[in-house]
Amino acid sequence: MLVDAEDGLLDGERIRRLVPDWAQASLWFCGPGGFGRALHADFAARGLPARAFHQELFQMR
């Protein structure tokens, strides 16, 4: 769990730093749509295959 005021924000760079073998992994995301799109674009730009990114499709109110 991250508390943004204490730990900073979660982003692709942080995930890659914490998961060294990220390129061989699947990424499962559940959260705000815009954040999911940003993560997907970030990982795709670094070579993660589209089929390796999974996102729950819902809208937060």
UniProtKB/TrEMBL annotation:
Superkingdom: Bacteria
UniProt xrefs under InterPro entries: FNR_nucleotide-bd
Protein name: Ferric reductase domain-containing protein
Organism in which the protein naturally occurs: Sphaerotilus natans subsp. natans DSM 6575
